Amino acid sequence: MIRSAAVWFMCLTGAAAQQLPVGFEKLSLEQRWLEYLEASKDPQQHVALLQQLADLRDHELLEWIAIYDHKETFGTAPPVAAKHLAVNQAPEWLRVAAWFGRHSKSRAVQLPGAGGLPAQQPGTHSQEDAITLLLQQPALFLGWYEKHADELPFLKWVAEAVRDKNVLPEKVGDRYPGPIDPEIAILAWLVAPRDIGELQRGVQPEEGKRYLHQVSRAVRGLIGSGIREPAYMIQLEQLTRHPNATLRREAYLAFSKIEPQHIPFARFERVVRNSKADDEDRALAMMAASYSDHPAAFLLMHELLPQANHPANGVAITRLTESGFGPTLAAMERLEDLGDSYGDAAARLRRKRREQRPHEVAGKIRRIVERAGWAKLTREDEFVNRTVEYLRGLRGETRQLVLPLVKDLTESYVPRDGLVPDKDRLQDAVRAVAREAAEVR
Question: Which of 12, 127, 131, 287 is deepest in the core (most CB within 10 A)?
Answer without folding.
Answer: 131
